[in-house]
Amino acid sequence: MPEANEHAQTAAMTTTTTLAFAVRRREPVLVGPAAPTPRETKRLSDIDDQEVLRAHVPFVFFYRGGAHAAGGQDPAAVIRRALGEALVPYYPLAGRLREVEGRKLVVDCTGEGVMFVEADADVRLAELEAAGLRAPFPCMDQLLLDVDGAGGVLNSPLLLIQVTRLLCGGFVFALRLNHTICDAIGIAQFMSAVAELAQGFSAPTVTPAWSRELLEARSPPKPAFPHREFDAVPPSPPPPGEMVMRTFTFGPADIAAIKKHLPAHLRKTATTFEALTAALWRARTAALELPPDEEVRLVIIANFRGVPELGLPAGYYGNACVPLAVVTTAGALLGGSLGGAVELVREVKAAVTADYVRSTADLLVLRGRPCVALANLFLVSDNRHAGFHRVDFGWCEPAYGGPADALFVVSFLVAVANGDGEDAVAVPMVLPLLAMDRLASEVEMMKD
To answer: What Rg do the C-alpha atoms of the chain give, in angstroms?
Structure first.
């Protein structure tokens, strides 16, 4: 339990209700592998170390009290022990990144460990649920508080984890990931390994695989596609007004309502991702009131683990996604139909081939790892199938598990349950306040 040298802080955020509570944190510690691991240097792939991934991304999981709590077990202690055990097969995660020639990223497998913080909050999960288990989360800055020296991409811990016990016996597991080392599926695989070990498994069900050399650029690099996602265009100036975040939730009836606006052949075949992404792209573009002749771009993050020609092994936990762009004008997007936008999304999804992935790696190396073009960008990453909502440390599955944040140009699709207990999709969006009001009106029309 908490000791005298902890930090006590009060967190408050206004959502639909004002929720304030104290969070008391112990001193951060490094948790290393529980057994000796190889001391070596491993190269990241050329998909891993692209510029857009050189950042930390937060995730959060809310758990109710359960069997372990009834038995008096401390979730922070259980998870800390399992974390050390999981870092034995996943030992690169306990290392540190550095750059070598041409800014190439490598991980020094030093075994130094990941940053771990345990804390206690004077709040119950029911209170957090009443405030809304959707981004923006109440007091997220205290449930995953930054630690000095842990925020860099290079020479810093690759993971920051905070386990916060709640008054009801539940807890919050929050994690910040250096995105160059894992994608969503990769970090969910690692978390599942920790969860299995927390439950008493002798070893993780999935054996981790490094194999980053399979996604190296060719020599010499020879990109073979236009790759509009990396267009060398200046970013759009930020729109005026205070930025706000709001999460929109779409249940089965809402998805069905959106698909009613599609022609018959698409109504039966369009996926939830295709219909929802296309509809939100159009709604967001309308809400921003962009000039009709301005280019707008949708970038989807496409998983290529299932492309057999690439030969990625089961258990691969590196970045196995590429960005794919659709570019049109605001006038063409809004003047066309929802069906036309769905067709654009479908066409770009079909581009995920082994040749396209290799071409992407080649372009990134040839052009010095350019950033994704930010001009009028809407980037969508589908996290529904990563497995976050199934991570069970022994306290059952989370009430919410997934991304903790979104950006003006980046949104996620997250698996949640709606108010009726049905499987649903949550999409956090960030826009200026007036544009968000317009977007909310557009979303309501989408659901009619």
So the answer is: 22
Active-site residue, 423 included: no
Tell me which amino acid residue 226 is.
P
CA atoms of 317 and 181, how far apart (whole Å): 8
- pLDDT interval class at 448 (50, 70, 90): confident
The one catalytic residue among 56, 68, 179, 389: 179
Asked whether residue 220 carries a pLDDT value surpassing 90, the answer given is yes
Is 392 in the active site? Answer: yes
Assign 3-class secondary structure to 75-94: HHHHHHHHHHHHCCCCHHHH
The predicted model gives 339-362 an average pLDDT of 97
pLDDT band of residue 67 (cuts 50, 70, 90) is low
Positive or negative, the Cα torsion across 224, 226, 228, 233? Answer: positive
Q: In angstroms, how far is the first alpha carbon of the chain from the final one?
A: 51
